[in-house]
Every structure is written in C-alpha cells, then in structure tokens.
Design goal:
The chain is mainly alpha-helical and 140 residues long. 82% of the residues lie in helices and 0% in strands. The protein is elongated and about 90 Å long.
Length: 140
C-alpha cells in the first residue's frame, strides 16, 4: 500500500509541474509582444497552492537568495528560501481569500438586488390591479 500512495503522490506532483509549465508558457506567449515593445524581459511565474513552483520561480528565488547572501545575511540559503516560499504562499492565500470575499459580497449584493426587484414587481402588479379596479368602478 505505501508504494501505491507514493506513486499517486508522484503522479499528482507530475501533473502539478505540467500545469505550472503550461500556465507559464501561456503567460509568456500572452505578454511576449508587450514586453518586447517595452524593451523588457517578461518572466512568467506560476505558483501552485500545493507549493509546487516552476523553473522560472526557482531561478528568481536563487537570484534573491544570492543577493541576500551577498549582503552578509545571518540566514542560510535554505532559511531564506523557506521564508520566501512562506511569504509568497501567504500572499497568494490572502489574495485568494480576498477574491473569495469579493465574490461572496457580489453574490450577496446580487441576491439583495433580485429580492428588491421581485418586491418592486409585486408592488407594481398590485398597483396595476388597483388602477384597473378603480377604472372599472369609474366606467359603471
């Protein structure tokens, strides 16, 4: 059984890495022209909620670690990478939470709007019925 679990985890990791690779390729394609026009280099960085990172992210992490170590940091390269990964993960989760709350807020606003419109339609129907009844009484 442990062998099956390890194979499943490896399969999940391979799919995650593949998804990162595809996401990065699509982003590179999307922003290539804009980057060239701006005389800039665009580097797509796809982050997975599982913690998997692609090669571009790994390269950027290595650059950051090198810069920090050059400035006589008291931290080891491993500690810097861990802190960087942790802070990126927190930032991503905060953004995800914000997006979720935004969607929930929009859904609540939409529900209130629908209820208000429904009440207004019911009131309009009652008003129309009252007008017809008043006009019917006038025609006798």
């Amino acid at each position: 059984m442990p062998g099956q679990r390890i194979r499943r985890q490896q399969g999940l990791l391979e799919r995650t890495v593949l998804h990162n690779f595809i996401a990065e390729a699509l982003k590179n394609k999307k922003y290539k022209d804009s980057a060239e026009k701006a005389h800039a280099t665009f580097v797509a960085c796809a982050f997975e909620s599982t913690g998997a990172i692609g090669e571009p992210v790994r390269k950027i992490y290595n650059i950051i670690v090198s810069l920090v170590l050059e400035n006589q940091s008291l931290y080891t390269a491993k500690e810097i990478r861990e802190q960087l990964s942790f802070r990126v993960a927190i930032a991503i989760q905060r953004r995800n939470a914000r997006a979720t709350l935004d969607c929930l807020g929009y859904a609540a606003d939409l529900a209130r709007s629908i209820r208000r419109d429904k009440k207004q339609a019911e009131q309009d129907k009652r008003d129309e019925e009252a007008r017809r009844a008043a006009n019917f009484g006038d025609s006798e």
